[in-house]
Amino acid sequence: MSVDAPPEAPARTVGRFAPHVLAGLITDAMKSCGLPEQDAAKVAELMVEADLTGADAHGIFRLAQYVRRLKAGGVNPTPDITVARKGPAVALVDGDNGMGHLVMSVATETAVEMARYTGVAWVGVRRSNHAGPAALYAEMPVKHGMVGIYSVVASSNHMAVWGGTSSLLGTNPLAVGIPCGDEPPVVLDIATTIVSYGTVKKYVMQDKTLPEGWLVNKRDGTPVTDPKRTSDGLLLPIGGHKGSGLALVLGILAGTLNNAAFGSEVVDFNADSSTETNTGHFILALDVERFMPMAAFASLLKGQLDELRNDTPLPGVEEIRIPGDQRAVRRDERRAQGVSIPKPLQRQLDELASQLGIAPLAARQP
């Protein structure tokens, strides 16, 4: 089995592993690919955070794919990440084809630092790579009392422009993080397609019929529900032409504006291991204190959110949830009980560890 092969069977059984165990495996894997210790640990920290908060398709699940691209020369393990200040509140980061997690960490730190003085900062990114879930970066400014807004040009195209037949748009996500004092922040993280392609891959892995309305055939527009025929399909956007338009403008702002890839320029990192992707992102940080004291904003927002949560639910709805409510719950539960790793994924990770000459998960678990 190659290092990037997907799990080979439905995830019927799982094992739980402590976060530090996952982080240790990821760190060692990254070091074996040439990343310095500090950078390897940073990538591991953010990948494990994805797993802790429930973005299972963007955490350790991606490790084999990242290793594959690093080993093939598609990603630079020792980048010289540079920041060009283009104005008091604008900067452009060149990631030198480094790991996206490292590049976006620099970009977000830059946005927060600039916003402390200007109130708002926009940082564009070019020559980056896949960086995990969008919410990771939208939530970073929140810890500094700031609103975070993030998007990226997806690392492969699975959608057509509205009315088109060619895969020229990605699932380009939008993530927004809003602080609420000591309460869990509002964190919205959505793809601009009805379903993320990661979810489609999970259905394919388990050979499950796809719900009608997710994909349509490129040739005649008929629904694609057969998991063996997803390559024939295009993902449908959220809200029809509105979702297509949103993916388009986010792609322009994260890609074109930064002289990064967009449209037919996007390299499918699932199929190509050696070509630089020139992935583009943007992050915006907005200081809440420029509008009112953080405590006053948090109190006001909490009251409004509680009113929404306490609304009478529709029949069949058990609970009204605000975007982000489950992130803190999952994080606490998985820190205490461990992160669930399906057996097929564990076998893949064990094979990867063997190929890299590092200890497997089970050997790291106390």
How would you concisely characterize the structure shown here?
The chain has 366 residues and is an alpha+beta fold. The chain has helices at 19-32, 37-52, 63-72, 100-118, 135-139, 197-205, 241-254, 294-309, 325-337, 343-356, 361-364, and strands at residues 14-17, 82-87, 90-94, 120-128, 146-152, 174-180, 183-190, 215-217, 223-224, 233-235, 279-287, 339-342. The chain is 37% helix and 18% strand.
N-to-C order of helices and strands: EHHHEEHEHEEEHEEEHEHHEHH
Strand content: 15-25%
Integer-rounded radius of gyration: 20 Å
Which CATH first-tier class of the largest domain would you pick? Alpha Beta
Q: Termini, distance in Å? A: 28 Å
Measured as a percent range, the helix fraction is 25-40%
Total E-strand runs: 12
The quaternary state of the protein chains shown equals single chain
Second rung of CATH, namely the architecture of the largest domain: 2-Layer Sandwich
Secondary structure tally, helices: 11
Sheet with most strands: 7 strands, mixed
Q: Structural class, please?
A: alpha+beta
